[in-house]
Write a structure and sequence with these properties.
single chain; Helicase, Ruva Protein, domain 3; N-terminal domain of MutM-like DNA repair proteins; about 30% helix; alpha+beta; about 260 residues; binds zinc ion
């Protein structure tokens, strides 16, 4: 599933390509026909992202998209290609087109409905001025493992499976530690780190969490195989201590960790 940094990248891309333009909206597949009719003929005022939720503002209406596991945008210049497959939404401007397939959410919201959705989301490290206090309050009250809390979008918005595993490794925190046993200094360091890592991800489109000294090839652009400490490295030697990286399911997703560094 795309993590928050990819959704922020999409919001920026749509802002750059489509903001200020009048759109013709359609739902070739039909499932979003009513919503598309509401948007068609309006001008896209701007875009926004909060965690894994993407928004387009059209005057007093918001288009809300959550890609889920299988959703995908495609876009291009000039006239759009013939619609193929389950095309939920197509936006066309004078210059460009944007297609959306397979999202778990694609809906039109009023400002109140959007506020109500946002009120159920935790702070997003990629949003300017995001306040980590709400997240630490929730974590500090919880007996649930930190590895589960980090993935809970009501606690923290935008973190997915890769950032979860990598952040815990970087701070030597066991994914199984109960939230209330995580001290606040560690949490503050984790939040600041997350802001830096996710901003870099939003700039480059890649999740790179390793420090150069921990890579097989320390110089130059990090290779794919050097990008992570533990994510998808089950059975491989930990970059810091050599112990095989472990894997288990947590919150229905594979969790990776080093049993020594994150004891
Ligand atoms: Zn280790």
């Amino acid at each position: 599933m795309p993590e928050g940094h990819s959704i922020h990248r999409l919001a920026r891309r749509h802002q750059r390509d489509l903001a200020g333009e009048r759109v013709t909206a359609s739902s070739p597949q039909g499932r979003f026909a009513d919503g598309a009719a509401l948007l068609s003929g309006r001008t896209l005022d701007g875009t926004d992202a909060w965690g894994k939720h993407l928004f387009h503002r059209y005057d007093d209406l918001w288009l809300h998209v959550h890609l889920g596991l299988y959703g995908k945008f495609r876009d291009g210049a000039g006239p759009p290609p013939d619609p193929v497959g389950a095309l939920r939404l197509r936006l066309v401007t004078d210059e460009r087109w944007l297609d959306l397939r397979g999202p778990i959410a694609c809906e039109v919201l009023s400002p109140d409905q959007r506020d109500s959705l946002l009120s159920r989301l935790g702070p997003d490290p990629l949003r300017r001025g995001a306040d980590p206090a709400a997240a630490i309050a929730r974590i500090g009250r919880s007996r649930r493992p930190v590895g589960a809390l980090l993935m809970d979008q009501q606690v923290l918005a935008g973190v997915g499976n890769v950032y979860r595993a990598e952040l815990l490794f970087r701070h030597r925190v066991s994914p199984f530690l109960a939230g209330r046993d995580l001290d606040s200094a560690t949490w503050e360091a984790m939040w600041e780190d997350l802001v830096v890592l996710m901003r870099a991800g939003a700039r480059s489109g890649r999740i790179i969490t390793t420090e150069p000294d921990d890579r097989e090839r320390p110089a130059g652009r990090p290779r794919r195989s050097d990008a992570h400490y533990v994510y998808r490295r089950a059975g491989l030697a930990c970059r810091r201590c050599g112990t095989p990286v472990e894997i288990a399911a947590m919150e229905a997703r594979n969790l990776f960790w080093c049993p020594v560094c994150q004891a």
